[in-house]
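Archive transcription. Copying these from loose printouts into the bound notebook so they stop getting lost. Printout 1 of 2:
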Amino acid sequence: MNSRADQYWGFWPLLPLYPFGQRRTLRRELVPGQVWSFEQLQGVFFVAVPIRMTAVKLKAGLLLYAPVAATAECIGLVRELEAEHGPVLSIVHPTSSGLEHKVGVPAMARAFPQAEVWVTPGQWSFPLPLPLSWLGFPSRRTRVLFEDGLPHEDELTWVQLGPVPLGPGPFCEATVLHQASGSLLCTDGLIAVSERWPELLDLDPKPMLYHGRNDGLEPMDDCPERRLRGWKRLVLFATCLKPRAVEQVWRSYPFRWQPGWEADFDAISRGAQLRVAPILEDLVFPRHRQQMTQWMRHCAELPVQRLVPAHFDAPIACSPAQFDALAEAWEQQDEPQAEQLDRSFLRAFNRQIERLGLVPKA
């Protein structure tokens, strides 16, 4: 077992999220000998869910997609793969707008100084527009996907989602199919959520136990029922920000849940089906919905066997036919009534930032 020193992340003040300076990494083999995930917890106020970096095996080495915090433990786990499968050849920062994905890239690039660094078009910073080199990206080996070429095109198929103008900068995501395994890697665009909480939370169940309580005086003792209750509530917070069933009571206990909240989880989960993340649908894709449709249709033309997103469940078994069905449902904009209520906060927030001129109107 690695020590707490190996799990220390010194750059946590740049994005001060739970668990702050201690970032335990869990490596899982998703496709034997071909695809691995590196997962760490991340969140606010114990609303912590895993964030995932994915490694894929290439003919001459490895590619890292969506870096996480480059702790000594995480780097050591990658080195173990290097010893068997060859060096890290490429590091991909696959989104233009996700700070939680950007913050780990410079340290990961320094850990693997021979690797090329690839980023999506339209990179931006806030509140000041700074060049990537000022943010720690190595200027001599940083390339822009689709503009400067594409890495390992004989083994990977790249698909661009976006750009979608947001105000401060665009949303753009680079998804990639690992041809050998049929694994499509994405960042934030699609998710699937099941009742089975992530294995990483078994190593640190405190967020589930905290939110699994019904009363502030209730102890955080561990049991499967409390874990499941806490996990479902974490999902509602993480996907909707302010679920309709939660009451804020800042006295003896910060959150109190109204009856029926379990049905809200079922509506968001949709039986663990693949879906567009609610935050993206309500805050990014009220504008330019057709771009999401086009991306789904493009993915439906690829020999996809599974999806590996950067959040929630992975791997998710899927097929081209499922992408076509997802595109149809997206165009029809069908959603359960319970989900509409849960997403009312997101939609009100979107209307507010439209009124303020921070994003273009839908």
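Printout 2 of 2:
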Amino acid sequence: MKKISVLMTCITAFALAMNNSAALADEGGQAPVKSTGYRGSYFKNGEIHVNTYGESEGKPLTSGHQDFKPSWSKTGDMLVFFRRLKNDRVVTNWKTAIHVINVDGTGLHALSDGAHTDFNQTWTRDGTNTPIWNRKHPDKVSFYVMASKVGNKPGQETALTDKSYHTWAYSCLIDGRILVRCAHPKQGRGYFLLTPNPGGEPTFQRIECELATSGVLDRVSISPNETKVCFEYQKGFNRKTKGRALYIADFDAKRPSITRAKAFANEEGANRWFAYPRWTKDEKAIVYHASPSLYLYTLGDGSTVKVSTRNGADYRYPHCEATPK
């Protein structure tokens, strides 16, 4: 009986590995994609879509531009994204403008004027529904954190951190803190929980994370119940985008700490762009993109399925309904 049990375990593991390999295969012989029931937003060929993952797209929310990285508000009715207005071979030389749009396609308005490099926006979870983003320093490759309000005009945004040192915001907590990566002038480099103090100095609590001593955590997203995080991980500190693995880990906001990290995609380091893992609202799954398609990883059984439907299209930056990154 013990041998049979071991054999069945091996067969199950092999079947799961084959399922994941098939899901991540080249676009050629794709099996039909099934509806997942999870609604989300994403970039497809430069346009923003709202759709149920696994179903064919209808009309995009935006068109005629290059619109990136939609993040869905916790209230479930709005997206914040950035529009590229000036392209450049060097991404940090782009000029962009932060925009808000309702998920039904109405109410589009800009929060920044397009004279800056404004990147990787999200929403606070503290009930204020505040859009925040990262703005490049005008004279060097360094960023600081900005905030505005829905309905504001460009020029009404305010800085949450000082531009004299690098701070990059990733994800927010219900209590108003923001998970950031920072080169703090006194505390040094690392990952912190930032408590904003508009008009004054914010406070920084260092996050304990053993994995961060040997590489870079990027595009970090806190789960809705704030007990886990998912993120990209790059071994070493020389920046690269291809070949990163995607991880899930335990998160303790009180300590604070990131522990028990475990890879769930591209642990082998294939030279491909695995990026932007984001939680579903029920925390049962994570959506991400592995160029050029979108995938859904289910935590319960460890399975991975492809959820983008059009071969040859450029899908990126998936996000789930009412779940700010």
